[in-house]
Amino acid sequence: MNAIETEKLGKEHRTGFWRKRVCALSQLDLTVAEGEVFGYLGPNGAGKTTTLKLLMGLLRPTSGDARLLGRPLGDVRAKQQIGFLPEQPSFYDYLTGRELLDFFGQLVGLDRSLRRERVERLARQLRIESALELQIRKYSKGMLQRLGLAQALLNDPRLVLLDEPMSGLDPLGRREVRDLLLRLKSEGRTVFFSSHIIPDVEVVCDRVGILVGGRLVAQGPLDEILLARIASIEVTASQVPPEIMGELDHLLVTRPVSRGEQLLLTVRDEGALAELVARLVEAKAAIHAILPHRESLEEYFLRHVEPREV
Amino acid sequence: MTVAAIALNTFREAVRDRILYAILIFALVMLAGSTILVTISVGGEVKIIKDLGLACISIFGTLIAIFLGIGLVSKEIERRTLYTIITKPIHRYQFILGKYLGLVLTLLVNVAVMALGLLGLAYLWEGVSSVRLFLAVLFIFLELMLVTALALLFSAFSSPTLSAIFTLSLFVAGHLSGDLRLFAARFGGAVTKLSAETLYFLLPNLSRLNFKDQAVHGFGVDGGSMGLSFLYAIFHIAALVLAAMAIFERRDFK
Ligand SMILES: Nc1ncnc2c1ncn2[C@@H]1O[C@H](COP(=O)(O)OP(=O)(O)OP(=O)(O)O)[C@@H](O)[C@H]1O
Ligand SMILES: [Mg+2]
After folding, report:
1. pLDDT tens across A88-109, in order?
2. What are phi and psi of B221, to 5 degrees?
3. Long-range contacts of A43-48 (CB under 8 A, 24+ apart)
4. I need a surface site. Which of A14, A37, A153, A166 has the fewest CB within 10 A?
5. Backbone angles phi, psi at A32, to 5 degrees
6. How close, in Å, is residue A225 to chain B by CA atoms?
7. Ligand 2: centre distance to CA B85 (Å)
8. Which pLDDT tens digit goes with each residue over B24-47?
9. Alpha carbon of A68 to those of A71, B119, B218: distances in Å?
10. Does the CB of A13 have a partner CB in chain B at under 8 Å?
11. Cβ distance A137 to A92 under 8 Å?
């Protein structure tokens, strides 16, 4: 069974005096298998939060449909097995961390002793033990984020949906969350999380989906998506006779860069590469390395922001 | 268990809110102050103490109901505390019911404190406990439950400020609609009569829940009319809470 299945899921907001339509998400077709860690990537305003809110029943779709753990959206039995961390979580600030987690423990139906045990264990794992007796209004941003992660795991969920779980955390904290995601995966849970930061995603995700302007423009393993479009290829050569440089010029995308003995030549694609290599071999130059440069996620985003681009 | 947990947490929020204590202390000071004043000036007319005491409970109870009621749901949406609540394995209507019962519990405790003060004073004066006084307080409490349900309904779809305006207008209209109907029946033309009648049936008639005069002046109490008023209040409360649930069920949380 798939953990998440959406079919043409879409959301239009109505804003302003004229109730103008704003399309936040359109025609999303997505499947996430059980046990997978799925990274949901996109620039600001792409529709990541909208998607997560739709899946959690905080927003109602204006088109399409989705199922979580095989059940329709908003189903209480499905929610029993789902953990959710909203973007920039905000909690009752008059409670202490322990009181809040205990209250949430009641809502997910844990009995008293189980609540105590889970709260202790999660506080230890997320390193907020010392803050448990502190009122939440005194929490720092990072502590709030950790508390948010703890509450998402209270019910021992099969599926975890996290909206930017690493935001507000320092480098150490980001790494801890990365490790947490890997542990959740090793425990066989499904994780779906949004982010716009590549290194966060690269290490932990089996697959990613890339969302731009409310549309899913790609999904699959991250390196496949980015390698599918090679931005440029770098050729390192030496003993290149200066007289052939003029003939190479039209193949190169940037001016040649010399590094001591060696020369760095950059071409756009495989066709240009073949020609360049042929010329170099012909001129008896030495070729040391050929290195394809995959597109960065930023370049990928940029290319899709203007979809009409040739 | 879910509804109880939400209700108790709402109660806990109120208890940790300074506004509640401010109102409660002010009410008790007013009660004690008026008693002293009455003792000195009028020579201790117990009627005036009862009159002032019931008014005190009614006014301060209404203040609490409106002040805390108008933010009951909208504040949770505004502060985004709702996101981690209704994504837990609960139904949306359980959230509404829990919030409502939590505020009702808060009111119950407050009214009980004020009523104990008043009943105690009356007992000191008269040497007998007054059932009528107790019944009057009970109906004040029913009215507060109704006002809270009104505030809850508005809170489910509008901002605290708008909810306050709506609730206050309906509170005032609810107290006047009975009089207005009588007035129109006596002096108005056909159109006035019809609109006064319509208004009367649309708005909750809060003066039906007023048994203060019976308690203060010792008028006879008609059990039948009291029972009807009780049912009238319960019916309106249920209708308002159900309406709040229905509206909340369809809402988007942005
Ligand atoms: N309540 C709303 N009314 C109107 N438009 C909205 C509303 N909420 C979101 N939008 C629009 O929907 C689009 C998607 O927003 P969303 O919050 O899902 O983006 P996001 O991918 O989570 O961005 P970020 O990385 O900044 O969190 C944006 O263009 C936003 O302006
Ligand atoms: Mg977002």
Report:
1. 999 999 999 999 999 999 999 9
2. -110, 130
3. A43/A196, A43/A212, A43/A301, A43/A305, A44/A196, A46/A211, A46/A212, A46/A213, A46/A214, A47/A11, A47/A211, A47/A213, A47/A214, A48/A163, A48/A164, A48/A194, A48/A196, A48/A211
4. A14
5. -125, 120
6. 32
7. 19
8. 888 888 878 877 777 777 655 777
9. 5, 57, 64
10. yes
11. no
> Which residues from B are below 8 Å from A95, CB to CB?
9, 12
Confirm or reject: Cβ of A113 under 6 Å from ligand 1. Answer: no
Is the CB of A19 within 6 Å of ligand 1? no
For the ranges A57-66, A254-263, B192-201, B203-212, the maximum mean pLDDT occurs at A57-66
CA of A280 to the centre of ligand 1 (A): 52
Domains, chain A, ordered by start: 1-80+169-218 (3.40.50.300), 82-156 (no CATH), 230-294 (3.30.70)
Closest CA to A264 of A290, A242, A241: A290
Rounded CA-CA distance B254/A11 in Å is: 12
Burial status of residue A77 (CB atoms within 10 A of its CB: 0-12, 13-18, 19 or more): exposed
The amino acid sitting at A271 is G
Q: Is the pLDDT of residue A70 over 80?
A: yes
Residue A193 has pLDDT above 70, yes or no: yes
Sign of CA pseudo-dihedral A179, A185, A190, A195: positive
The two tokens of residue B52 are 């002032």
Report how far ligand 1's centroid is from the alpha carbon of B44 (Å). Answer: 66
